[in-house]
Specification:
2 domains, 4 helices, 2 strands
């Protein structure tokens, strides 16, 4: 299916969308509309910084980067709970690549608070 993707953020954009649909209908064309929630994606800068926080924790605790990342996700990250058709519930950690910008911000903020409270040195962005 080909078509046009619209981002309707203002009343003017919504009005233009309505006019476009009206013109298509007058021309006898069928219209299919699909609504998709727009996700505010995290930035690559946020991901790099989150990894640097994991590195700071790993170095301070004399652990691997993988262990620091896993444990920090368990403590501050996003966990999805799934229920099987049989009623079994399982929890899975979400990959950084699937975090929204707000989820990544919350993770980073919580992680920074932990590091500060435990006097664990880390580099702030831009340093």
């Amino acid at each position: 299916m080909s078509g046009v993707m619209w981002h309707l953020n203002t009343d003017h954009e919504f009005s233009m969308f309505q006019q476009h649909c009206a013109m298509l209908r007058l021309a006898g064309r069928k219209i299919r509309v699909k609504f998709i929630a727009e996700v505010d994606p995290k930035t690559s800068k946020q991901i790099r910084y989150a990894h640097s926080l994991c590195g700071a924790l790993a170095e301070y605790r004399n652990a691997t980067m993988e262990q620091a990342k896993l444990d920090s996700k368990k403590e501050f990250g996003v966990v999805k709970v799934y229920t099987s058709l049989f009623g079994d519930r399982t929890a899975r950690l979400v990959s950084f690549s699937d975090y929204s910008k707000n989820e990544m911000t919350a993770y980073i903020t919580s992680f920074e608070v932990y590091l500060d409270e435990n006097s664990i040195p880390y580099s702030h962005p831009g340093h």
